[in-house]
Design brief:
- The structure holds two protein chains of two kinds.
- Chain A contains eleven helices and twelve strands.
- By secondary structure, chain A is of the alpha/beta class.
- Chain A has two domains: 277 residues, 3-Layer(aba) Sandwich (Rossmann fold); 98 residues, Rna Polymerase Sigma Factor, Chain: A (Orthogonal Bundle), CATH 1.10.1740.110.
- In chain A, the strands form three sheets. Chain A has an eight-stranded mixed sheet with strand order 1-4-8-5-9-10-11-12, sandwiched between helices. Chain A has a two-stranded antiparallel ribbon with strand order 2-3.
- Chain A is globular, with a radius of gyration of 21 Å.
- By secondary structure, chain B is of the alpha/beta class.
- Chain B has a single domain, classed as 3-Layer(aba) Sandwich (Rossmann fold).
- Chain B has eight helices and eight strands.
- Chain B has an eight-stranded mixed sheet with strand order 3-2-1-4-5-8-6-7, sandwiched between helices.
- In chain B, helix 3 links the parallel strand 2 and strand 3.
- The radius of gyration of chain B is 16 Å and the shape is globular.
- The chains are: A alpha/beta, B alpha/beta.
C-alpha cells in the first residue's frame, strides 16, 4: 500500500504518484549531494519510449525544465493533456521513437515520483518539507547517471533539454563528456543571472508568504499554499512569454464584459489567463518542490565550478554541441547562449549555434517552430551519421 | 560534387585531406560539405546570416552564427590547420586584426579578396565617374557591405606589414579561371578580378 495515500495529498498528486509507480528506480546506495548532505536512498521516476538497440547506442536523454516532468511524450497522468514535447518525440517524428530509445526522468527534488520534499523522510516517517536537503543541477544529474547506469547504457547518443533542462544537459556533457555523444542545450544559460535569481525569489516569497505554507509543513497541517504557488506561477509565466506575444494574444481585451468594472476582478483577458495558469498549476505541482528546484537553478554556475573560466568546463571535450536560442527570449537571451558558444570556441570544441527568429519568447522551445525543428533535425541526423546510427 | 563555385574549388584544392578547417563566412556550407565529403575534413563554419547558419546545421555541418570581427578572437592559437575567409575580408570592420586572428588560430589561412585594381573597376570609375560595380562588387555605394576594399598590391602590402608568408597566390579572371600571373606583378593588379592567397605566420 502506498504510504502516501495516508497523507493529505491532493487527489491528483496521489493519482500521479500511482501512475508513475510503473517506472521507478529505487537506489539504495547513498547519494552525497554537492551541499555535503547525504540522501541515504532515493527514487527516480522515469518514462521511456522506443527500444534500446543491441549496441545500446541509440539512447536519448530528455531533461525537463523547472515545472516539467517525465511525461514528455505521453498523456500526463494529472492533467490528461499530451506530454510537453509530443510534437518532437514519437514514432516517425523528429526524435523518432522507432529509431531512438528516449528516456526522461523526473528531477531530484521534483514532485512526480522522484524523491523530493513531499516524499516521506525515512528518518521521521513524515514528509520531508524543509528538512529535505537543498539540491543542485549537479545532484539532479547524479541521480540521472544512476538511472542510465541501471539501464546499462555506457554512452547516451544525445542529451537534450530546454531552460533548466539545458542546464542539466550542460552539466551532463561537462561532468561526463565520455558518456554523451551529442548535447543540445536549448534556451538556457551556463549560470543564472541576477535577473533570473530575482524572478525566482519573487516566486519563493509568494509561496512563503501564504499562511497555508506553514513553514513548509503544510501536509502535516492538512493545508496547501495554493494561493502563493499560483502567484509564483503567474509571475514566472510572464517571463516565459514575450511582450509582443502577450500583446498579440490579449492586448487590452476585456474578459466576458463590455466595460471595465472599476474593481479588482479579472477585467482583462490577460488577468484571467494568468489566474487560470496559476490555478491549473497548483493541481499538478508541489510548492516545496518549486522552492527547491528554483534554488537549484539559482545555484547553477558552470564557470564558477571551473575556476571562474567557462572554457575550462569544456576543455578537450569530444561532445558535439548544438546550442539553440530564440530571438524574443528575454529570460535566457541569446547573449547567454553566445557565452557558451564562445567558451566552446575557446577550446576549439565542436559546436553549432543557431538563433531562431520567433516572437514566442522563452516558451518557444516547447512550440513547433519550423526553423527550430528543421535545424534540430539536421543536427541530430548529422550526429546519427557520425555515430553510425543509420 | 560538381556544383562547387570555381573559386571555392580552387580554395578546396589548397586544403590537405584529413585536416581541421574553419570556414568564416561559410554561407550555405557548400565548401564545408565538399571538404567533408571529398577530403575527409573536420570542418567548422561561421556565418553571419541566420538563414545561412540554419541551412548549414540542417545539412549536418557544425556552424555557428557569428562574424569575423567579434568571434575570431574567441578561438585559441593553432586550433585549426586552415582558416578560410572567402570574399569576406573587405566586409570586416578591422581587416588587419582579422588577418592576424586567422593566422593565429590556424596554421594556414586561405583568403580570397576582390581586386579593386581590376581594370574594369578602374575604367568604370574613370569613364563613368561613379563608384564602380562588378560581379564581385555588386552593391551600390550606399548599401554595400564592402567597406574595406583593396587591390592585390594593397593586400600584399598588408601581408608584408604583418610579416606573413605568402605560400601560394592564385590570380583569377572574371570567370574564376586561374591566370598564370605573379601576384606581385603590375599585370596581376590590372588583370585579376580576384586573388586567392595561402598565408602563414613566419617561422
Amino acid at each position: 500500500m502506498n504510504p502516501l495515500s495516508e497523507m493529505s495529498l491532493s487527489e491528483p498528486i496521489r493519482r500521479a504518484n500511482e501512475a508513475a509507480a510503473g517506472q521507478i528506480l529505487v537506489v539504495d546506495s547513498p547519494l552525497t549531494l554537492e551541499s555535503g548532505a547525504v540522501l541515504a536512498s532515493y527514487r527516480v521516476a522515469y518514462q521511456t519510449y522506443g527500444r534500446l538497440n543491441a549496441a545500446k547506442s541509440n539512447a536519448i536523454l530528455v531533461c525537463h525544465a523547472l515545472t516539467g516532468d517525465q511525461f514528455v511524450a505521453d498523456t500526463h497522468p494529472i492533467t490528461g493533456k499530451p506530454g510537453w514535447w509530443t510534437t518532437l518525440i514519437g514514432p516517425g517524428l523528429l526524435i523518432d521513437t522507432d529509431r531512438y530509445f528516449v528516456i526522461c526522468s523526473n528531477v531530484l527534488g521534483g514532485c512526480l515520483g522522484t524523491t523530493g520534499p513531499k516524499e516521506l523522510n525515512p528518518a521521521t516517517g513524515q514528509p520531508w518539507g524543509l528538512d529535505f536537503p537543498v539540491i543542485t543541477i549537479g545532484d539532479m544529474v547524479a541521480a540521472q547517471v544512476k538511472l542510465i547506469d541501471h539501464l546499462n547504457i555506457d554512452q547516451l547518443f544525445c542529451a537534450i533539454g530546454g531552460s533548466m533542462g539545458g542546464m542539466q544537459v550542460l552539466k551532463w556533457a561537462t561532468a561526463h563528456p565520455d558518456r554523451v555523444f551529442a548535447a543540445v542545450p536549448i534556451a538556457t544559460a551556463s549560470r543564472h543571472s541576477a535577473q533570473n535569481i530575482a524572478f525566482h525569489e519573487v516566486g519563493r516569497q509568494a509561496i512563503m508568504a501564504d499562511p497555508d505554507w506553514c513553514g513548509g509543513s503544510y501536509f502535516l497541517e492538512d493545508k496547501r499554499p495554493e494561493r502563493g504557488l499560483a502567484v509564483a506561477r503567474m509571475a514566472a509565466h510572464i517571463t516565459y512569454l514575450s511582450e509582443v506575444a502577450l500583446h498579440r494574444k490579449f492586448g487590452r481585451n476585456l474578459q466576458d464584459r463590455k466595460a471595465i468594472s472599476y474593481g479588482f476582478e479579472a477585467d482583462f483577458q490577460v488577468e484571467s489567463y494568468l489566474r487560470h495558469q496559476g490555478a491549473s498549476f497548483v493541481e499538478r505541482f508541489d510548492a516545496n518542490s518549486y522552492l527547491y528546484i528554483t534554488r537549484a537553478t539559482d545555484y547553477f554556475d558552470l564557470a564558477a565550478e571551473h575556476g571562474g573560466r567557462l572554457a575550462e568546463a569544456f576543455r578537450g571535450t569530444p561532445v558535439r554541441y548544438c546550442v539553440i536560442s530564440f530571438t524574443s527570449d528575454w529570460l535566457y537571451p541569446t547573449s547567454e547562449s553566445r557565452v557558451i558558444v564562445h567558451a566552446l570556441n575557446a577550446v576549439a570544441g565542436n559546436v553549432s549555434f543557431v538563433e531562431i527568429e520567433t516572437d514566442a519568447g522563452h516558451d518557444a522551445f516547447l512550440l513547433e517552430e519550423p526553423e527550430f525543428f528543421a535545424t534540430l533535425k539536421g543536427f541530430i541526423e548529422g550526429c546519427a551519421r557520425h555515430r553510425g546510427l543509420n | 560534387m560538381t556544383g562547387l563555385r570555381r573559386d571555392l574549388r580552387l580554395i578546396a584544392d589548397m586544403v590537405a585531406p584529413g585536416s581541421r578547417v574553419l570556414d568564416i563566412g561559410c554561407a550555405d556550407g557548400a565548401l564545408l560539405a565538399y571538404l567533408a565529403d571529398e577530403k575527409n575534413v573536420d570542418g567548422r563554419g561561421m556565418e553571419l546570416s541566420q538563414a545561412g547558419v540554419n541551412a548549414c546545421v540542417r545539412s549536418g555541418l557544425s556552424v555557428i552564427q557569428g562574424d569575423a570581427d567579434n568571434d575570431l578572437p574567441t578561438y585559441p592559437a593553432g586550433a585549426f590547420d586552415y582558416a578560410i575567409l572567402s570574399q569576406t575580408l573587405q566586409a570586416t570592420r578591422q581587416p588587419r586584426q582579422v588577418l592576424e586572428s586567422l593566422t593565429r588560430i590556424a596554421r594556414r589561412a586561405i583568403v580570397s579578396v576582390p581586386n579593386f585594381g581590376y581594370w574594369r573597376v578602374r575604367l568604370g570609375l574613370l569613364a563613368t565617374g561613379r563608384m564602380p560595380s562588378s560581379s564581385l562588387l555588386a552593391h551600390s555605394w550606399y548599401d554595400t557591405p564592402n567597406i574595406h576594399l583593396c587591390t592585390i598590391r594593397d593586400f600584399l602590402g598588408l601581408t608584408a606589414d604583418l610579416g606573413l608568408v605568402v605560400e601560394q597566390a592564385q590570380m583569377l579572371d572574371r570567370d574564376g579561371q586561374p591566370w598564370r600571373l605573379r601576384a606581385d606583378s603590375g599585370a596581376a593588379n590590372w588583370l585579376a578580378e580576384q586573388g586567392v592567397f595561402l598565408l602563414r605566420q613566419a617561422d
